[in-house]
Amino acid sequence: MLKKYTVEYSLHFRKHSPPEHHQYFTDDPVALEDFLQSLLEHGMGLHAIRHEGADLPKGDFDRMVKIAAAEVASRLICRTLNIKPEEERYRFGFAA
Questions:
Q1: pTM score
Q2: N or C, fewer C-beta in 10 Å, the chain?
Q3: pLDDT tens digit string along 15-28?
Q4: Could you give the CA distance from residue 49 to residue 52 in angstroms, rounded to a whole number?
């Protein structure tokens, strides 16, 4: 049985070309969002997000990446400036 979500990604090692593609499988949309945030934080390559075996439409793909990027930015701002999420949202507008 297919997992609900599949993410195709690569590690982007500079010495290895072309990059080897890996896949992450999950049924949980929250786990998917956490994994996307981890990819963004570590600078890994994101090649595709699939839902039930089909590539997500470009708009949905972009929306998921934008949400994950906003969460990463929010955490970094809060940690760097030592402020609470409420203050970060008021000042910068990222926190959910």
A1: 0.85
A2: N
A3: 656 678 899 999 99
A4: 10
